[in-house]
């Protein structure tokens, strides 16, 4: 069974940075694409960042210029580098991968607060 495991969440001050990691139990090129989603209290889950195997990326308008998604295939890992964090970035962040079906990690909490 394919597993995705997120880590790197925590508490950070506004303007700070965090790097989230998603480690897959299979080679990440087994996926057609991978992405990061987030869900804040009282809100729908939303796409944050997405990357496919041609390295084409997409970002939510709210994070463009601040967040970067990238992959390290040797480590079977996808990262989300988050800079200039804002309180509204507070959410549970989930890793997603698509092959012949869709896979999800369990999520990692990011809290941005003074």
What is this entry, summarized?
It contains no helices and eleven strands. The protein has 114 residues and is mostly beta strands. The protein is globular, with a radius of gyration of 13 Å.
Structural summary, described in words:
This protein has 114 residues and is mainly beta. 0% of the residues lie in helices and 52% in strands. The chain contains no helices and eleven strands. The strands form two sheets. Strands 2, 4, 5, 6, 9, 10 and 11 form a seven-stranded mixed β-sheet that branches. Strands 1-3-8-7 form a four-stranded antiparallel β-sheet, with no helix packed on it. A hairpin with a 4-residue loop joins strand 7 and strand 8. The chain starts with a strand and ends with a strand. The model has no long low-confidence stretch (mean pLDDT 96).
